Amino acid sequence: MVVGARSDDDSATDAGAAYILFMNADGTVKANQKISALSGGFNETLLEKNYFGYGVAGIEDYNNDDIPDIAVSAPNSTNIALYIIHLNRDGTVKSYVKNTNFSSDYKFQIYNIIGKQIYESRITSQETNVDISNYASGLYFLVSKMNEEIKTFKIVKE
Question: Taking the complete model, does pTM exceed 0.70, yes or no?
């Protein structure tokens, strides 16, 4: 599980962090690994009020190494980015990709398990939130379209 801590002060005030939580079967936390400018092998400079961890999501195994990966946003206007973070098994950072090219031409859709589109929106800023609290439990697919590049992410709503 990944949890954002956007106001963490590791390297600067409100620089932010994300935590990888390793869970026990009963839902309690067994262990955690912090990811920030000073922890977890994340070698990125985070600025004051970067708010790294403002938005977080598990994105399955994006780099095909059998370890789930995460997406983490940092919406500060001077260092705006969406990070795709590839993890090691212990929750530390193996590698990451910093995405900074955001255009209003970008869009995404959410599809249910039978392939019916149930939501569509344009990405107008680095931080785009979608409330899925009213969706039924199940499997969904988020398809992002950025210029000619199409990426699909699996969402499991419990």
Answer: no
